[in-house]
Amino acid sequence: MGHEATLASTTPRQRYLALLGLYASIFAFSISFGGLVPWMALDMEGRGINASLIGLVAAAHPLGVMLMAPFTQRIVRRFGSGNAMIWCTVIAIATLLPLSSWDSVYAWLALRFISGLSGSVPWVVTETWINVAATDRSRGRAVALYAAIMAAGFAAGPLTLQWADALAVSPMPWFIGLQLLSLAIFIPLRRMAPVLDHKGGAGIVSVFLALPALLSAAFVSGALDSTFFSFLAIWGQRVGLSEAFALTLLSIFIAGNVLLQFPIGWLADRWGPRPVLLGCGVACIVAPMLVLAGLPAIPVLLGVVAFLWGGCVWGTYSVALVAMGRRFSGGELVVINAAFVMVYTGANIVAPPVAGFAMENIWNPHALMVVGLLVAAAFTLLVATRRKEF
């Protein structure tokens, strides 16, 4: 940990360079991850693997992240935040190498689980580092830019599949290359990595008890993003939209994820996180109500609502990170961020099967909107009644 920096020992220029480097590293990784997940699903489907097994492989990575998150702070304290990020990233990249040559679904399941275990540390430390490097005046915009870059990378990922298909080459070398690029960008930043030691204080369980409203932001963003990525286009086709417009609707939702983060972050800097979280929550309640009231009959308005909805769903994630960074610091922030990531990935795993079951067995297809409405209402109620968390 001798190579790491305290906040007091780093200059504003160093913190600015660290943020730029982290953003570039995140973007390269996000493109790779955003393309890898659908490539694996399409490859397995092409080999005749049943949907349940494909779903298990998809869930293995977030499950690994969720299970490792509580141990992140201990790993960081033992090895230092910079070293922990580097070596865990190396392990995650190593799990990609056999994917092209191993045909066993169960081998893929194990590799993705190990990738999730190792990927948990860079995820938690990166978000904590951005929060620590930002000032109180600019934290909303710094975190929002991170959220927008990550969402843009995830959205760009599937385009690499189209590009590889047009060139008749495997996309796997590009996915691996992008993650190596992400690592190469990060390595020079190691000496500026913050000391995130934490002796005593809150543990994961006490964080859950003390900060339910903040953690519910992780749940609403994780649940709605993963669910709409899986089912929004299907919902659109089932309500009578053309296949092209149904896919466009998902693209519009993702565009809201990306383009609205900076204005939402600016509002968080100006007004504080709580009013902005409340606003995002209310928007996520109103949007499905409008859809259920007959909005699909007016495609232009449906597109506008999907854009705003996408921004507010992902905005709950970034603004909650801002609220955490305002109240907590150092190693304590690592513990809280780890709990946040646990909830987010848990929602990734739980929400899509619940929404899919509800669509098939309770109200086809509008149960998707009801699930979104209920999750948003619970979140908004918690933020409204838990003022002391902010």
Overall description:
- By secondary structure, the protein is an all-alpha fold.
- It has helices spanning 12-46, 51-68, 72-79, 81-94, 105-133, 139-167, 172-186, 204-210, 212-238, 243-259, 261-271, 273-292, 299-327, 330-361, 367-385.
- Helix 1 (12-46) packs antiparallel against helix 7 (172-186), helix 3 crosses helix 4 and helix 12 (273-292) packs antiparallel against helix 13.
- The mean pLDDT is 88.
Descriptors for this entry?
single chain, 390 residues, mainly alpha, 79% helix, 0% strand, globular
Task: Break the fold down into its secondary structure elements and pairings.
Elements: H1 12-46, H2 51-68, H3 72-79, H4 81-94, H5 105-133, H6 139-167, H7 172-186, H8 204-210, H9 212-238, H10 243-259, H11 261-271, H12 273-292, H13 299-327, H14 330-361, H15 367-385
Helix pairs in contact: 1-2, 1-5, 1-6, 1-7, 2-5, 2-14, 3-4, 3-5, 4-5, 4-7, 5-13, 5-14, 6-10, 6-11, 6-13, 8-14, 9-10, 9-13, 9-14, 9-15, 10-13, 11-12, 11-13, 12-13, 12-15
